[in-house]
Design goal:
mainly alpha; SP0561-like
């Protein structure tokens, strides 16, 4: 079974699941994934700050992870 992420996961934890997730987040406009806020911010919180839909990001990342299996 492929690894999956959820919108309540911390940004750092999502990147730890697969380093390629950072590229997806950056492509969507989250260029500050390396900032201190990322350590304690969930995907849902970060998406809200950047005006993005957390559920869409979750779907894109989980699709990417599923294809890697």
């Amino acid at each position: 079974m492929a690894k999956q992420i959820s919108k309540d996961m911390l940004i750092n934890d999502i990147i730890e699941v697969d380093a390629g997730n950072a590229a997806i987040l950056m492509a969507e406009g989250m260029h500050c994934i390396g900032c201190m806020a990322a350590a304690g911010e969930t995907l849902e919180e970060a998406a809200g700050v950047h005006g993005l839909e957390a559920d869409e990001l979750v779907a894109k990342i989980n699709e990417y992870l599923a294809k890697k299996q």
